[in-house]
Amino acid sequence: MVKIYFFSLIYNKTINFSQTWGILMKNKLSLLFLFYFLFSAIGYTQYQTLWDISFKNSTTTPKWLGTGTDNTVRGMAFGTVGGQKVVLVATRAAAVGNQIVILNAQTGDSIGALPKSNIITGGSGAVLCDVEISDDGQIFVGNLTIGHLTSPFKVYRWKNLADTMPKVVLSYSDTIGLGTGASIRLGDKFSVIGKISDGTFRLYAASATSTSGRGNNVIRFKYDSSTDSLVFEKVIKLKIPALTSVASAVVYPVAIGDTNFYWKANGENLRYFDKDGNQLSLSTSSLIPTGANALRVYNFDSRRYVILYRYGSTTENLAFYDVTYGANRAQFIHFTPSLYKNANANGTGDVGIDVLTNGKVRVYVLSTNNGVAAYETDFYALSSIADARKQTIVNDKPDKLNKVVHIKGVVLPLKI
C-alpha cells in the first residue's frame, strides 16, 4: 500500500492507494477529483493542546511564572529524569526566589522544585537563566554572565530530581581560543546533547557579545569523569564576517560527537555550520523570520526539521521548518498558537521536544512574561506531486515497500 500525506497550513490529508492506484494513474481526471474530494472532506488541525499555563489563557497563574512584566522566567527544558518525563522551568520570580520548577510533562501539573536551589550564586547578568537535561537524565542549570572573565559562567548539576547534593560542575573564565582580554557574555542559552554515563555528553554555549567579532565564538565543553566536572574542549570560530546581532545566541548540534550545528540569535538569520565553523547554508528572513532564537533539531523519515521559538506581539510560539536541503531552502510547515499577552522586550523564551512515533512529537514552549504550554503535533516533509510519484512508483506500479511519502497540499498543476 502506498500512503500519500497531504499537508496544508490548516489540514493534513491521508490518501491510501493499493490496487486502485493503477486505475487512477490511467485516469488523471479521476485522480484529480479524488485529491480534491479528500482535500475538502478530511482534515484536522495541526496540533492538539495538551496544557497551557499562560496569562492569556489561564484565569490564575502560578507564582513561579512571575508578574508578566518582570522578565524573570527565561529558560526551560524537557527530558526524562529517573523514568519520568518532566518539564523544568528556571525562574527568578520574586515571589518564589531562584528555583527550578518541576512540571509533569503530560499534564503541566507542578510536582515541586529541585532541592537546594540556594547553591546557585553569582552571575553578573542573572544568577539563574537556563536549564537543560542530558540524554541520561542529569540536570544542568546555568547562570548568565555579561563578562565571563570577572564573573565566571557557572553550570550546576543535579543527578536526579531528588538530588540534595548538587554541585558546580563548571566555572569558566578562560580566554583560550578567544584572545587576550576577550571577555564575553554567556548563559542566555546553552544546549546539551549526549550522556554523562557513556562520555558522549557535550555542552555548547554561544557568545552573545558582538564587540570585536567576539560573537563569532561557540564554546564546547565535555564531561571529565576523573574530576566529575565539565571541562573546556574547544572554541569553534564561526568563519563568517563579524556578527553584530547576537542577543540570545544559541547553537544546537545535529548529532552526538564532533558534528555540524545550527546557530541563531535575535535579529539574525538561521545559519548552518560544519564542525569547524564553516558556514554551509544561510536562511533568509523571507524563509525564516529573524525574530526567533531557541531551537531544536528533529530528524524523521530521512528528513530534517528545525523547531524555533519566535517572539513578538503576533507570535510568542513555536514554528516548524523543513531544512532537509539546507537553511537556504527552508520550508515553513506550521506554528503553534500565540501565547502573547504581555510584552517580551528581550525576546526570550525556550523550546523542548519529545519525539514520539509515526512523525508525532510533543513540543513545549516557554514565552517570557507570557507562559508555558505543551502541544502534540505531526508534520511532514514537503515535496511536489511529481516527486511523490517518483518516490512511490516503480515501473508504473506502487512501491511494494509500503513507503510513506509526504507532499505539499497543492493539487494544481497536476503533472503525473
Descriptive notes:
This protein is 7% helix and 42% strand. It has a four-stranded antiparallel β-sheet, with no helix packed on it. It has 416 residues and is mainly beta. It is globular, with a radius of gyration of 23 Å. The relative contact order is 0.15. It has three helices and 29 strands.
Layout: helices, strands, pairs:
Blueprint: E1 2-7, E2 12-17, H1 20-26, H2 28-41, E3 47-54, E4 73-81, E5 84-91, E6 99-104, E7 110-113, E8 126-133, E9 139-144, E10 153-158, E11 167-172, E12 190-193, E13 202-206, E14 217-224, E15 229-237, E16 250-253, E17 261-264, E18 271-273, E19 279-282, E20 292-300, E21 303-310, E22 317-322, E23 331-335, E24 349-355, E25 360-367, E26 371-378, H3 385-392, E27 393-394, E28 397-398, E29 404-408
Strands in their spatial order, largest beta sheet:
3-26-25-24
User: Could you tell me the number of beta strands?
Assistant: 29
Instruction: Describe the sheet with the most strands.
Output: 4 strands, antiparallel
Using the CA coordinates, give the radius of gyration. 23 Å
How much β-strand is present in the residues? 35-45%
Average pLDDT score:
85
Terminal-residue CA separation = 19 Å
Q: Number of helical runs? A: 3
Shape: globular
Computed structural class: mainly beta
Low-confidence stretches: 1-21, 33-45, 390-416
Helix content: under 10%
